[in-house]
Amino acid sequence: MHAYRTHTCAQLRAADVGAEIRLSGWIHRKRDHGGVLFVDLRDNFGITQIVADSDSPALEVLDRLRVESVVTIDGLVKQRSDETKNANLPTGEIEVFARGVTVQSAAQELPMPVFGDAEYPEDIRLRYRYIDLRREKVHKNIKLRSDVIASLRRRMIDQGFTEFQTPILTASSPEGARDYLVPSRVHPGKFYALPQAPQMFKQLLMVAGFDKYFQIAPCFRDEDARADRSPGEFYQLDFEMSYVTQEDVFAAIEPVLHGVFEEFANWEGMGRSVSPLPFRRIPYRESMLKYGNDKPDLRNPVEITDVSSHFEGSGFGRFASIVESGDVVRAIPAPGTAEKSRKFFDDMNSWAQGEGFPGLGYATRKGGEWGGPIAKNHGPEKMDRLADELGLGPDDGLFFAAGKEAQAAKLAGLARTRVGEQLDLIDQKRFEFCWIVDFPMFEYDEDTKKIDFSHNPFSMPQGEMDALESKDPLDILAYQYDIVCNGVELSSGAVRNHRPDIMYKAFEIAGYSQQDVDTNFAGMINAFKYGAPPHGGSAPGVDRIVMLLADEPNIREVIAFPMTQRAEDLMMGAPSEVSPKQLRELNIRLVEQPGQGGEAKKDTAEAVSPDAG
Predict the structure, then answer these.
(1) Is 175 annotated as a binding residue?
(2) Of 85, 403, 424, 486, which is most buried, counting CB atoms within 10 Å of its CB?
(3) Contact of 457 with 175, CB cutoff 8 Å
């Protein structure tokens, strides 16, 4: 017999009754029924009920052990009586009579229980993450993550992609998010950077003649945490293809994502559907108008409409003056709100003010009769015309966002989401994918008063060199695209600008010289001068994919060892101070910084030359 187990805690069935077996696992739960002790023994695979009574030599040992102690049980498989069978457990038809027990590791008093679904503070959960990971829901999430990554890898290989690994220690990039820097011991005063993404390396693989690349790539960005973004590091399904158009990229990755989401749509019995292939394509400007953002949740049926023209010369003076000044009015339908009280609409206005906006106008409607100050001043006939254009029913209300276009779009987008949530319009049983396409290549930066790149500076402009030379930069679109699911952006991607002449021209429009490009992007621009194929790709986020499939609101729940919101690893004590010896080896010294209360605080490092005093 094996030293630790003949079966896992999920394997035994009625057919095993009468067998002498050995199980190992954690004591999940204990129940004392007057001289008979029932123990739920748990391992990675499941739970088996152990029974020890006065005839069992294991009774005394099991009785004194705390839960989460690790034991090995030798015992006899017995049939449970009909009234004690547990249909919720795969092993629920049997139990194991304990004939012997070996204590592998006795547990101390726990900082948090494993059994049950009670919520615990983040600092406790992350400080004792190895215990938190034993809890059923989190444990299943991490197993799901492994299964999803295996499925992604298998599907990419089946699509003809080859897996490569790219460097972790690389050069710092002047573009994008803040780098994590790694000091070089052998090159004093110089630093490596952890890759924000394998972007340049994967493009160089295309230049090197490899046709279809992918990897499950670790990426590192010194960014603040959000519900859908982990601080520090994350993983993405990074891929690149040669000799492809934008549609070729879509055709390659859509079956992979659709297949993975269909494979796990019924995880834990959730029974969700996935939008059919091909995924919908939505131009950026249409998305900003209809949904108020570039990552729309298409499960929400509410669509925003620009109704500025309806208020030209309107009796509602405020909107009329807004339109006359060149700003906009956007309408957000509120379906079936006839029976909602005035408080519902007032609460929406208060919510908008709490989000930092001046307010959210509204008009109520019941049986075709309008209510509210906007409708009263605008007039019922004009309101009816507006409602007809929007396709509203007689019991559908309206919210209005007015002002500068960008602000009105933002408020309308947030209000659309809130209306969908408040009115329970969002179908929780669907995964709705779409591509956002036709992003502007450039935008005007109000702070710097100059034209800059709006999305990705290395994308191919639509129209290529001719567009750069003949069009207003703000009218140029790029072959850039985002893949979005249920309002979550999974990735950005692009058909790349593989021609040095077009790249120099694009950067020139954004105010960068040829020398700037040659200095900051030397590796890539030099490679392109030796013959580069047209290529493109994307990089859907693995963490976000798993978060959606696990139906978790926070990305932390699908990462084995996440950091806190402040990018701290409480379990391992990172970031931490290092010894003076390590700093000397790296030619780094700490600089005293003013702390709170006038005290000095060592929190900044600087590189020094080896012979500095």
Answers:
(1) yes
(2) 486
(3) yes
Q: Does the annotation list 254 as a binding residue?
A: no
Q: Please name the residue that has the structure tokens 């494993």.
A: 114
3-state secondary structure of 302: coil
How far apart CA 78 and CA 581 sit, in angstroms, is 63
270-277 long-range contacts (CB < 8 A, ≥24 apart) are 270/429, 270/551, 271/429, 272/429, 272/430, 272/431, 273/429, 273/430, 273/431, 274/430, 274/431, 274/433, 275/430, 275/431, 275/432, 275/433, 275/434
CA 517 to CA 527: how far, in whole Å? 13
Distances in Å between the Cα of 373 and the Cα atoms of 376, 380, 535, 612 are: 5, 11, 56, 73
Nearest Cα residue to 206 out of 158, 162, 269: 162
Is 541 assigned a ligand-binding role in the annotation?
yes
Tell the residue number behind the tokens 């002790």, with chain if given. Answer: 37
The three-state DSSP-derived secondary structure of 5-35 is: CCCCCCCCCHHHCCCEEEEEEEEEEEEECCC
Query: Any binding-site annotation on 496?
Result: yes
Query: Binding residue per annotation — 222?
Result: yes
10-residue averages of pLDDT along the chain (613 residues): 96 97 98 94 98 95 97 98 94 98 98 93 96 97 98 97 97 80 94 94 97 97 84 95 98 98 97 97 98 98 97 92 96 95 94 95 95 93 96 96 95 97 97 98 90 92 97 97 97 96 96 93 93 97 98 95 93 94 93 60 56 45
In whole angstroms, give the CA distance from residue 258 to residue 265.
10
- Is 535 known to sit in a ligand binding site? no
Which pair of tokens denotes residue 307?
């109704």
Known binding residue 543? Answer is yes
Tell me how many degrees the CA angle 513-515-519 measures, rounded to the nearest 5. Answer: 125
Phi–psi pair at 333, nearest 5 degrees? -65, 150
Q: Does an H or E element contain 316, and which?
A: none
Residues contacting 418, CB < 8 A, separation 6+: 348, 351
The answer to whether the beta carbons of residues 559 and 233 sit under 8 Å apart is no
Instruction: Please tell me whether residue 257 adopts helix, strand or coil conformation.
Output: helix
Q: For the chain, give percent helix, strand, coil, nearest 5.
A: 30, 25, 40
The annotation status of 269 as a binding-site residue, yes or no, is: no
**Residue 367 annotated in ligand binding:** no
Q: Is 42 annotated as a binding residue?
A: no
- Which stretches of 116-175 are DSSP H helices? 122-127, 129-132, 136-158
The CA-based dihedral angle spanning residues 152, 154, 158, 162, taken in that order and rounded to the nearest 10 degrees: 80
221 annotated as belonging to a binding site for a ligand: yes
pTM over 0.85: yes
The residue among 293, 550, 557 whose CA lies nearest residue 431 is 550
Q: What token pair was written down for 177?
A: 């998010």
